[in-house]
User: Fold this.
Amino acid sequence: MLQTKYAVIGAGLAGAATAWQLARAGHEVTAIEQYDVGHPYGSSHGSARIFRRVYPQAFYAHLTGRAEALWHELAAESGAKVLTTTGGLDFGAQRNPRKLARVLESLGIYSRLYGAEEARSLWPQINFDTEVLYQPDAGVIDADLAVRAMLDLACASGAQLLSGWPIGSVTPSARGYTLKSPGRPLVHAETVVVCAGAWLPEMLPELPLPDAALRALPRLAVTQQQVLHFPVRDLADWPVFVHMGPLQVYGLPGGRDVDGLAMKVAEHDGGRPTTASGRDGIVDPAARDRLIDYVRTYLPGLRPTPVAEDTCLYTSTPTEDFLIDRIGGIVLVSPCSGHGAKFAPLVGKLAAGLATGRGRVPAEFTLAGSALGAL
Assistant:
């Protein structure tokens, strides 16, 4: 049997960040990953995730500043280029750039509004249909590099990493929990942090949680999303963008996955219901057609023939808020709903604080203090 004080189930962005934060604070921690690190089956793979400061809710906009500081700490400690700043644009009638600007102004976060014509003169590769909000701190997170950097730092501080360890069961024991994986030694942990991503809904019945807690948990809906990479017509600097018009679309430079020669473009929530174990990994042809039409209309700086495509998983709560809470000796971590990657190091710090009992999380993320517990 392997003994550890803290076991972290899942070594994607949230799990790697939690292991890093626990280990750098001197705690004994074991990170457990069912596949190889960096696997493509969940929500933490690839070289391109958006970092942005812009939110319609001041609560999340404020938290992006805390997350950004931790991204810079990770880069400094690891030497890895985990965050590349590009600037970001928000536009579209449903995005309401002017309202977003007021939220940022209330927090002292710099942004600037441009009219559509002026914005086209600055970013001719994009056709704007409304005013445009520019925020210079936005950029691209290299998820693969970030996961590996956080795990490397965790291991350098004494953490253990077990990969290829699918969890079969988590059962209470005299001083914590026993984790079983088929054909492998048992792991005994005093506290378990579950960062299982899209596998969390399937794991819940196997976790020793009180019935009242299970009833209070929000519905976690898993959807398979599709992303396409479109080649750039020239090597002009591209910002990240969020456009809420006829479709809800985001785009960002695709990074290493496409040798820096294509933009990643996707619908925010154009996926179909699935499960982590039941996904088929096939891009929906209708979604592909929608995005190709979108590129033809709004992104003249791209060639409308995708050079690569992929799928990933969203795990969404009804409110699109995160779930980070402790129930007994188990910490549930679901920083999800398609906007959690940018917060990964902060999520790790919050989860580590709950695990050690030395920290608190915002009430909005807990069952007792947010809308989640009432749903």
Observations:
- The first helix runs from residue 13 to 24.
- The radius of gyration is 21 Å.
- The domain at 88-136+221-316 is CATH 3.30.9.10 (D-Amino Acid Oxidase; Chain A, domain 2).
